[in-house]
Amino acid sequence: MSTPLIGVLALQGDVREHLVALAAADAVARPVRRPEELAEVDGLVIPGGESTTISKLAVLFGVMEPLRARVRDGLPVYGTCAGMIMLADKILDPRSGQETIGGIDMIVRRNAFGRQNESFEAGVDVEGVEGDPVEGVFIRAPWVESVGAGAEVLAEHDGHIVAVRQGNALATSFHPELTGDHRVHALFVEMVRANRTAES
Ligand code: GLN
Q: How does the record describe its quaternary structure (predicted)?
């Protein structure tokens, strides 16, 4: 089967780093801004950045509803940090007007690990990632307050949930795209491949 085509939602955030990580994990990666571009991809990454900005721009560009529709239909998606917030069914402390795409039955708390100057790195054991702990880069990171029955916790740090999967949706509080370790992206590329096989 041909190499999967994976989009990176390119409204705001660290798009380039995800494009590089996906290419290193054997996917063809390209930025996605418009509904027509979204329609073409086999999977989608929602980058880190600022979830309030991504939310506003998604509405402004007319891509919020198409995103919700594709995620509802089972498009494999992976969100890091702000991207995790975008995939949460509920935000504990949303800014006014802040919306999410949803897709994972979880409640997230924004900036839960502290402000910018409290950013840190820590080894994180992620279910489904073989070998050494993943180097987790946490930048004004959210944590997951609670998950519903359908969502599976893949990792915790300091007693807080930092990686979750529900069906074809994956989310991490931290940023594997910033470390040069592509194992979490490889896990996502595998999810995309498995979904294509199931659909074909
Ligand atoms: N705190 C940011 C937000 O609420 C996320 C930060 C990040 O993506 N590194 O969107």
A: In the presence of PdxS, forms a dodecamer of heterodimers. Only shows activity in the heterodimer.
Annotated binding site for L-glutamine: 49-51, 110, 139-140
Residues with CB under 6 A from ligand 1: 48-51, 81-82, 85, 110-111, 139-140
Quickly name the fold that domain 5-199 has. Answer: Rossmann fold (3.40.50)
Query: Looking at the annotation, which residues are catalytic?
Result: 81, 175, 177
- C-alpha distance from residue 25 to each of 31, 33, 47, 126, 178 (Å): 16, 22, 16, 17, 14
Q: What is the pLDDT of residues 150-163, one digit of tens each?
A: 999 999 999 999 99
In the chain, what are the domain boundaries?
5-199
pLDDT in tens, 103-143: 999 999 999 998 766 899 999 999 999 999 999 999 999 99
How close is the Cα of 198 to the center of ligand 1, in Å? 33
Rounded Cα gap, residues 129 and 142, in angstroms:
21
The pTM for the full model equals 0.97
Tens of pLDDT, residue by residue over 44-74, are 999 999 999 999 999 999 999 999 999 999 9
Indicate which residue's Cα is closest to atom 2 of ligand 1: 50
Rounded distance from Cα 81 to ligand 1 centre (Å): 6
